[in-house]
């Protein structure tokens, strides 16, 4: 939840996001994907670019961002969309979610979290090449047409409703209200389109001289990371729409990509160069955006903290923290505040209403939570799947700043969030000062080092060995060798 402002964020359609669902082998020929960028596409991309940067934490700068940009432009040129590196804009964005995406006009993006999971330059090129493949094949436009969407920058909820809420029937506006700023947003491509993007990405790798197997190895790491995240967060039956988490089975996808790479030329991986260039990259949450530690969210700048309910997991986003579980979903966010909490709560419900469906709350109740003035109300809404309860619970932190949870549960289920509502508190200056970022630390394996000994240096209270293996693309039985470079995660300012 970085740099929360007093105004709600603008919703933007994520056009070519995610290496989602996998296509089966033999999905048909790849269409002509060599047509250059058109003036219309360039304009569309230029319009979407600043909104996407805002959605995903902003563009990073410095040597690490410059390196990602260089690799991204090199692989993008292989597509034929543009004749020069200057035809593409490649951004490393400050997000802790594993994601990569691209939009028409030559705009390509990857999150720092996804880059940190990679283990060589070829894998970075593979991820960006896949996203360029979606653009080259005009997949976003085709999906827009199939959905009868007339605007590339149409409403976020209109395209993405159901990502967090499922088929709730709450309507586009309510869906958008829960999705904004979450960084969990993805435009679903068809199985055939995903295969086409895979194939094009592998072609670009080969043209650039990279090892084409990198598409398969990075997918393997992503599948392992998604499985580890589900296990650590206790959400084995829940999914987050990240870059490789959609169906079909990621393991099948890995094998498909590796099969397509067989016999193709290209051996360059630039492993050591890659690891050296990403050394020091921030990993996980940026304290400037707030951090998640176990079931607690803390924001050192906003000086607030709360706990998620048991059985729920959190995902930090640009202007919201998402809290997700089998019995409900919630977000913590903010809006403009004029000093009246009752009006603030009512305005929140108005923002979730639409012409098709009004969300009418009951009386606004006042209370105090850990010394904070608070107000809340609940609205019962009829949906296609039955009645649901939507609750807004707001807290005043100053005369000009308020924050609120908005939650959705089945009718009568709001009490599952009561422990969370009652956990909101201010944090002290000392607590805030002790929140420091985690970073990637690239080290060289010495004689006598083992997976266990290096994993013990990971700045986590649990799952250190599992985290270390996934981070370095190591199988469950794979050992280390002296002289090998590996990544560990440490806390460092």
Automatic annotation (TrEMBL):
Q: Please tell me whether the keyword Zinc is annotated for this protein.
A: yes
Query: Know the name of this protein?
Result: Beta-barrel assembly-enhancing protease
Q: Which CDD domains match?
A: LysM
Tell me which species this is from: Alteripontixanthobacter maritimus
Keywords carried by this UniProt record: Hydrolase, Metal-binding, Metalloprotease, Protease, Signal, Zinc
Check the record and name the Pfam families matching this protein. Answer: LysM, Peptidase_M48
LysM domain: from which residue to which, for each copy?
441-488
Question: What start and end residues bound the annotated signal peptide?
Answer: 1-23
List cellular component terms (GO).
membrane
Gene Ontology MF annotations: metal ion binding; metalloendopeptidase activity
* Gene Ontology BP annotations: proteolysis involved in protein catabolic process
Judging by the UniProt lineage, the source's domain of life is Bacteria
Q: Which InterPro entries match?
A: LysM, LysM_dom_sf, Mito/Outer_Membr_Metalloprot, Peptidase_M48
- Cofactor(s) listed: Zn(2+)
> Which PANTHER family does the record cross-reference, listed alphabetically?
M48 FAMILY METALLOPEPTIDASE, METALLOENDOPEPTIDASE OMA1
């Amino acid at each position: 939840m970085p740099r929360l402002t007093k105004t709600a964020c603008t919703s933007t359609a994520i056009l070519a996001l995610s290496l989602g669902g996998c296509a089966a082998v033999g999905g048909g020929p790849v269409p002509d994907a060599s047509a250059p960028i058109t003036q219309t596409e360039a304009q569309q991309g230029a319009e979407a670019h600043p909104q996407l940067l805002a959605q995903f934490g902003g563009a990073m700068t410095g040597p690490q961002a410059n390196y990602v940009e260089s690799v991204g432009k090199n692989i993008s040129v292989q597509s034929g969309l543009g004749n020069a590196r200057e035809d593409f804009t490649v951004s490393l964005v400050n997000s802790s979610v594993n994601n990569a995406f691209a939009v028409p006009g030559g705009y390509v993006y990857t999150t720092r979290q996804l880059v940190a999971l990679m283990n060589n330059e070829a894998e970075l090129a593979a991820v960006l090449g896949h996203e360029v493949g979606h653009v080259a094949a005009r997949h976003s436009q085709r999906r827009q047409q199939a959905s009868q969407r007339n605007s590339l920058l149409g409403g976020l909820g209109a395209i993405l409703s159901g990502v967090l809420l499922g088929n709730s029937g709450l309507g586009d506006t309510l869906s958008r209200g829960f999705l904004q700023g979450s960084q969990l947003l993805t435009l679903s491509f068809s199985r055939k389109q995903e295969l086409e993007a895979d194939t094009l990405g592998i072609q670009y790798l080969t043209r650039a001289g990279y090892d084409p197997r990198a598409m398969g190895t990075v997918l393997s790491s992503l599948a392992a990371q998604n499985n580890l995240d589900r296990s650590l967060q206790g959400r084995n039956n829940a999914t987050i729409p990240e870059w490789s988490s959609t169906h079909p089975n990621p393991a099948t996808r890995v094998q498909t990509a590796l099969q397509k790479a067989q016999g193709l030329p290209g051996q360059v991986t630039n492993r050591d160069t890659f690891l050296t260039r990403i050394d020091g990259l921030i990993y996980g949450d940026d304290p400037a955006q707030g951090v998640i530690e176990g079931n607690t969210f803390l924001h050192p700048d906003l000086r607030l903290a709360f706990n998620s309910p048991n059985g729920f997991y959190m995902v930090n986003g640009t202007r919201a923290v998402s809290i997700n579980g089998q019995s409900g979903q919630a977000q913590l966010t903010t809006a403009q505040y004029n000093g009246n909490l009752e009006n603030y709560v009512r305005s929140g419900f108005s923002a979730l209403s639409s012409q098709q469906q009004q969300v009418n709350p009951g009386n606004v109740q006042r209370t105090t939570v850990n010394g904070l003035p608070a107000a809340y109300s609940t609205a019962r809404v009829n949906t296609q799947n039955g009645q649901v309860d939507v609750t807004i619970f707001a807290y005043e932190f100053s005369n000009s700043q308020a924050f609120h949870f908005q939650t959705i549960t089945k009718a009568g289920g709001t009490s599952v969030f009561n422990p969370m509502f009652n956990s909101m508190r201010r944090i002290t200056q000392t607590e805030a000062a002790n929140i420091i970022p985690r970073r990637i630390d690239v080290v060289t394996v010495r004689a006598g080092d083992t997976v266990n000994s290096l994993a013990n240096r990971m700045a986590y209270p649990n799952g250190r060995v599992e985290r270390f293996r996934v981070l370095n693309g190591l199988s469950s039985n794979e050992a280390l060798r002296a002289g090998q470079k590996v990544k560990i995660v440490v806390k460092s300012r």
